[in-house]
Amino acid sequence: MDRKNIFSFFAFFAFVFFFTQHLFASSIADQSKTGVCARSIALGKAFVGLADNSSSVFLNPAGLAGVNKIEVGSLRANLVDEINYTVLTIIYPYEDNNFGFGWANSSVPSIPVTSWTYISGVARPQIDGYTDYNSNVFVVSYGASLKKFIPLSEKANNISFGTNIKYYSQNFSETTTSLEGASGSGADLDLGLKFKAFRWMDIGVVFSNILPENTGGAFVWKKNSVTENIPASIKIGSAVRIFGENALSKSSSSELVYLLDLEKEIDSNFSGLLFHSGIEWKATNNLYLRFGIDQQKTAQTSGVVLQNNLTYGIGIDIHQFQFDYAYYSGNSENKTHFFSLKFEI
Known about the structure:
By secondary structure, the chain is mainly beta. It has a single domain, classed as Beta Barrel (Porin), CATH 2.40.160.40. It contains three helices and 17 strands. It is globular and about 80 Å long. Residues 1-26 have low confidence and may be disordered.
């Protein structure tokens, strides 16, 4: 690969990183960070360097360029036994352009709306009604080979890029006095890059939610038009093929891929790096086994600490259909089972 081209691209993305770093302080949660497909979750949420299916819509839009069929993916989970979590992703290739759509939804039904009433001078809570909560992320994606727009040397023709436009919304089904203004919306932008460093290694870079607040990258609550930043981050990931066709050790009987992502959250409260790591083994033509470690920050009385969460899962691939399962260990409150279905047209 042409070193001059590689340096230019990394210089550009480094500029975006340092430009946005000081712009984000307090922020709302990006629910798509929970995970968008069971395969990537089972791999410790390390997927930026691989990014080879419809979940690329969320995880690295540059991966759209490598998909040559219409692909639809879905995920379903129940978080902390109360939150219904659903994800839908679609990739539509058209000539040299690949387009994508994604939707992630978290919902909680029948939440009691309460107020205080006084009985014999004693304050007691009473239920005034029920409301449903919904949080959504909508994504429109584009991915293509960079040579379509920029003349590159022959060795650098395998570089792809992608971008996401994202829309966030949160709302309640009933807006009583206590919930008045407790809804809002916002928008942001992602940039992604992916290239093959060697025949056995792919590299990916993603900048998530990079729009500054003064250009629209914010979430605005209806009540008093309060504005919050949407959390920005940078991820650099690699996918190393250890066994397989294009791997360090050529093998036609099995495939083994090691994934490693490093994540930097643009957050004044945490200045460290998070790592995500996973291994995918193609045991047979139809069966995949996956293991990973997902590192997340958690708040404790002593401050912010890092927690390493074990993940594992399987994948069953039958013709155009693939079923994936993942288990996320987490802590006692968020041990979760994830189920995904993907099919090609």
